[in-house]
Design brief:
Layout (H helix, E strand, L loop, with lengths): L1 H7 L11 E2 L9 E2 L2 H17 L11 E2 L7 H16 L4 E2 L6 H4 L4 H5 L6 H10 L6 H6 L7 H6 L23 H23 L2
Parallel strand pairs: 1-2, 3-4
Helix pairs in contact: 1-9, 2-3, 6-9
Length: about 200
């Protein structure tokens, strides 16, 4: 998503990508931290930069957050972190796709809540890293219409309890790279819009 923003606003935006996980999963170049530490980690780093001369003083007009990991804990941490960073005086552009207005711009599967390693997410991976997709296995998977978000809201603690014993929800067999590319463009456009909005405030 951040790459799409850079392409759309190449003359205005400097971007860097760092994957941050709230559940302990990370590659060697990512950051992993428990939810209670993640917000502190992000905010403290910005405070240190702020105290050392200020991010805004370095020419940055805002901080933009590109997020496509919609786990409730992760989203809650990003909302809290955004508020704390704004309190430091740095505007934050954070299009929250779990809010209805933005969710409605995405796919029907995303809106249904049956969305974990299904058509929506698999399409994104196929558009960006098709080498990571086992196409034969993907095509053989039957659709699982169970809503992961509804199940977790009812108290489910595991994928199996939520109705996804194989850890996927939705229809990965219907995923396409074209859908993924279109979704990336929609999400990038939303982030560009959020950036422009906070810069012009």
């Amino acid at each position: 998503m951040s790459d799409g923003v850079a392409e759309q606003q190449a003359d205005r935006i400097i971007h860097g990508t760092k994957c941050i996980h709230s559940d302990g999963r990370a590659s060697p170049t990512d950051i992993a931290a428990p939810p209670e530490q993640l917000s502190v980690c992000c905010v403290q780093g910005l405070k240190e930069n702020h105290d050392a001369g200020g991010i805004k003083a370095q020419g940055f007009a805002c901080l933009a957050i590109a997020n496509s990991h919609f786990d409730p804990t992760n989203v809650a941490v990003l909302r809290e972190t955004s508020d704390e960073i704004r309190a430091l005086g740095l505007p934050v552009a954070f299009p929250d796709f779990t809010r209805r207005a933005l969710a409605q711009t995405l796919t029907e599967e995303f809106m249904s809540g049956a969305c974990h390693a299904g058509q929506f997410e698999t399409s994104l991976v196929m558009a960006d890293r098709p080498d990571l997709v086992n196409d034969a296995a993907r095509s053989a998977l039957e659709a699982n219409p169970a809503s992961l978000t509804s199940a977790f809201a009812r108290g489910a603690k595991t994928f199996a309890e939520a109705g996804g014993p194989d850890a996927y929800f939705g229809a990965p067999g219907r995923a396409t790279a074209a859908e993924g590319a279109q979704t990336f463009q929609i999400m990038a456009a939303a982030l560009v819009s959020a950036i422009c909005e906070v810069i012009e405030m």
